Amino acid sequence: MARGWRRQAKRYGAPAAFLLAVTIAVLLVRSGLQSDPATVTTVATQTVATLPATTPVPVKRRRFYRLKAGETLSDVAITFDTTVEQLLALNPGIEPTNLIVGQRVRVK
């Protein structure tokens, strides 16, 4: 008779313990999600006007210049109203001390 009682306790006790554990977990999570109204922070929002979707966006076109005999990067910079540093940033592979006649230099 003792053996049958243990079997019945295992059969019904395990699911009951599982349901109790799940219920406790759900209650803990719900209490963590509920916030005190005194600690709620309100954020003001601002309405921003949007532009019409049909407004075309101007495309920046790249401009190149072919070097002539005797020209340096500073000559090109003066011609296009920019700096040598900006030309070097636009042309990362260029060597300022090894320019070739007819070489393409990006200026914009």
Walk me through the topology.
Elements: H1 2-33, E1 64-66, H2 73-79, H3 84-90, E2 104-106
Antiparallel strand pairs: 1-2
Provide a compact summary of the structure.
Helix content is 43%, strand content 6%. By secondary structure, it is mainly alpha-helical.
Describe this structure in words.
- With 108 residues, the protein is mainly alpha-helical.
- Helix content is 43%, strand content 6%.
- The protein has 3 helices and 2 strands.
- The protein has a two-stranded antiparallel ribbon with strand order 1-2.
- The longest helix has 32 residues, at 2-33.
- The radius of gyration is 38 Å and the shape is elongated.
Supply database-style keywords.
108 residues; mainly alpha; two-stranded antiparallel ribbon; 6% strand; elongated
Could you give the order of the helices and strands? HEHHE
Number of strands: 2
Strand-residue proportion: 5-15%
- Note the gap between the termini: 95 Å
Structural class: mainly alpha
Inertia-based shape:
elongated
- Indicate the low-confidence ranges by residue numbers: none
The residue fraction in helices comes out at 40-55%
Largest sheet: 2 strands, antiparallel
